[in-house]
Amino acid sequence: MSNSTGNTLLALLTGAAIGAGLGILFAPDKGVNTRKKLKDGFDDTKNDWNEKLASASNEFVEQVYLAKDDLEGNFENMVSKASHKTEDVISFLEEKLAELKIKNAKFQK
């Protein structure tokens, strides 16, 4: 952002803030009513943000639980596959051992 654009934006925001302040000061309504409207507007905005934050928090927690369940499922699947592979390796080694025993028995005679 160039310096002149920044200055223009700052001037615009400052003018808007001053205009809003003057509008509140010179409003045709009583000060009590204006303050009540401002407070009500602030409370509504605060409640909306709190609801959005609670909703986002609940969604985040739900996503964490889903990711955890998915990770646990993947881990169990990996362990199961590793167990099957281990059984395959043991069976292969037992077959080779049996073959070697037969060859060894032939040499012993």
SSE blueprint and pairings:
Blueprint: H1 3-25, H2 31-108
Protein name: YtxH domain-containing protein
Transmembrane segments: 6-27
Pfam family, one: YtxH
Poorly predicted regions = none
- The geometry reads as rod-shaped
The major β-sheet equals:
none
- Average pLDDT: 84
- Structural class, by secondary structure, is mainly alpha
Radius of gyration: 38 Å
Instruction: Count the beta strands.
Output: 0
Strand and helix order: HH
Report helical residue fraction.
Answer: over 70%
Count structural domains: 2
**Percentage of β-strand residues:** under 5%
End-to-end separation: 94 Å
Count, helices: 2
How would you summarize this macromolecular structure in one to three sentences?
The chain is mostly helical and 109 residues long.
What do these coordinates show?
There is one protein chain. With 109 residues, the protein is mostly helical. The chain has helices at residues 3-25, 31-108. The chain has two domains: 1-46; 48-108. Helix content is 93%, strand content 0%. The longest helix is centred in the middle third of the chain and has 78 residues, at 31-108. The chain is rod-shaped, with a radius of gyration of 38 Å. Pfam families: YtxH. It comes from Flavobacterium restrictum. The chain crosses the membrane at residues 6-27.
